[in-house]
Design brief:
two-stranded antiparallel sheet; 3 helices; 139 residues; mainly alpha; 12% strand; single chain; 49% helix
């Protein structure tokens, strides 16, 4: 390490080294303060939600209290996560989900509507969709 310090002392004047050290120190302090303020805000949010859920408030007031606690946390953390709008695989619904959430597995082409005749033969029964995935046994 003496080689590095010799190189730095010869290439950087003393003021530049002090300025660099000061800048690094201030950056580290700012990062630590930001982390602690987010942690404190998260703790305050959790405490406020506990107060909101005590049971002595009517439901609308409790929901408003929780929303207010969430908005206070969002102000500290920079806002809520942005939602991403997507269309369901079958195209029948619009889905709003937080960014980064993976949609459920499954392909609508995997679903094969199946029917069977009732025991008395007078009606046709559509088998429930959760058992109509290809390869699933039909009872």
């Amino acid at each position: 390490m003496p080689l590095l310090s010799t190189t730095l002392s010869s290439s950087f004047p003393r003021r530049a080294r002090r300025a660099l050290a000061g800048t690094l120190l201030l950056t580290a302090a700012a990062a630590a303060q930001a982390q602690s303020s987010v942690g404190a805000a998260q703790l305050q949010y959790e405490q406020q939600v506990e107060v909101c859920n005590r049971g002595d408030r009517p439901a609308p007031e409790r929901r408003a209290c929780i929303r207010a606690a969430g908005m206070a946390l969002d102000r500290v953390t920079g806002g809520p996560s942005s939602d991403v709008q997507a269309t369901s695989q079958d195209g029948r619904a619009t889905i709003l989900a937080p960014a980064g959430v993976v949609s459920p597995a499954g392909d609508p082409s995997d679903v094969v509507p199946q029917t069977r005749t009732s025991n008395d033969g007078r009606s046709t029964v559509l088998v429930p969709s959760d058992s109509t995935l290809r390869g699933a046994a039909v009872r």
